[in-house]
Amino acid sequence: MTNATKQPSLLGGAMIIAGTAVGAGMLANPTSTAGVWFLGSIALLVYTWFCMTTSGLMILEANLNYPTGASFDTIVKDLLGRGWNALNGVSVAFVLYILTYAYITSGGGITQDMLNAYLPQMALSRSAGSFIFCLILASFVWLSTKAVDRLSTILIAGMIIAFLVSTSGLMGSAKMAVLLNTAEPNATYLPYFLTALPVCLVSFGFHGNVPSLVKYYQGNAQRVVKAIFLGTSIALGIYILWQLAIQGNLSRHDFAPVIAKGGDISALLTALSHVIHTDYIGVVLRFFAYMAIASSFLGVTLGLFDYIADLFNFDDSLMGRTKTTLVTFLPPLLLSLQFPYGFVIAIGYAGLAATIWTGIVPALLVKASRKKFPQQAYRVYGGNFMPVFIMLFAGLNIFAQIALQLGFLPNFLG
User: Fold this and answer.
1) Is-contact 365 58, C-beta < 8 A?
2) Element (H, E) at 284
């Protein structure tokens, strides 16, 4: 095989997917699923993994009928019309921009803390930390998808090592009685199912990367399918191990003070300190969180970068990529410099809009695509039933998020 036709590595694409999915949001999973507890949270995660992976493949099916480099603006406008394209465009841009802002603010805070700890003479501000974090990582997105692939692979490898080091002690001390919540024989779990569902959805968000991977693998459908399945399966495995590590040590009621502080990681570590020695875990978890945020930032902004290039018809030249980079990174960076402490609020607002283009729009796209391109080479499994199944998943999430805001769903408080 010549260099001209050689496909990029499967692992690289999978790392982009896994890196995008496994962000700082995973730190909220054990707390947000405390109501349904361990077995319920595994069922929720597997259900969400299947639905989100399938909806991502639906975007792929539609995407393959268009020239390499086409993103949501081109595909949705042609298949669903200008109305749906406007709604989808607003939701895509809102989610990707708000997540970029969220990761800049949180990544900037950790950058500030780490540099001030090792170089106290610098006395960096939060804004300076955000600027440094954004500038370094944005340069990789500006360079190429391959540069993001390489850095994502390094970050994910480091993240997995930090994750295993930080959770090995926790998993070793996990107790079956705690995992099965035998202390509460009459406990109720089902009422909290819908409450936890939206957080699980955000934990598997990678859909903005599908057009980028189609371009990266030069339209090779099977390569993209394998990268998506491998990447989301890595994310699922990490989430399940994390649930085991945390919910195997803290009882269901031990989450009360953590929930009261919005799932703050320091509150979680404080709760864990009562059951296991956590001094080294706190340090390693800081590195883990930083690499998780950085890898998610790369994955999210790569999807936003390609969406912006498609929307404004910026070419792949040096000047074209520079213009795309400025439109991609400047608005969330300026927002982060103005409002440096909005991470949790931003993540919360991203969920409802994400449901539109990770659930509803993919199902509609695949139905319209099969009607317009009946001879297309790649089709998602499940036939005509699967788009309906994904629409139901999206409907459940929308209902859950609206009902939560209106106070119609029970909230587990410990």
Assistant:
1) yes
2) helix 279-312
For residue 307, give both structure tokens.
């969406």
Q: Are 324 and 308 in contact (CB under 8 A)?
A: yes
Tokens at 295, concatenated: 């890898």
List CB contacts of 148: < 8 A, sequence separation 6 or more.
16, 140, 141, 298, 299, 302
Residue 1 has pLDDT above 50, yes or no: no
* pLDDT tens digits, 279-294: 677 678 778 878 888 8
Summarised one tens digit per residue, pLDDT across range 109-149 is 888 887 887 888 878 888 888 899 999 999 998 988 888 88
pTM for the full predicted model: 0.81
For position 152, what pLDDT does the model report? 82
> CA-CA-CA-CA torsion for 63, 68, 72, 76, nearest 10 degrees?
-60
Phi, psi of 37 (to 5 degrees): 60, -165
In degrees, to the nearest 5, what angle opens at C-alpha 54 toward C-alphas 243 and 293?
45
The 10 Å Cβ neighbour count of residue 171 is 15
The three-state secondary structure class of 250 is coil
- Residue keyed to tokens 């086409």: 70
8 A C-beta contact, residue 25 and residue 199: yes
Q: Environment class of residue 319 by beta-carbon count within 10 Å: exposed (0-12), middle (13-18) or buried (19+)?
A: exposed
Helical pair 385-406 and 343-355, crossing angle rounded to 10 deg: 140
User: What confidence category does residue 394 fall into, taking pLDDT thresholds of 50, 70 and 90?
Assistant: very high
Cα–Cα dist 227/10, whole Å: 6
The C-alpha atoms of residue 216 and residue 8 are separated, in whole angstroms, by 7
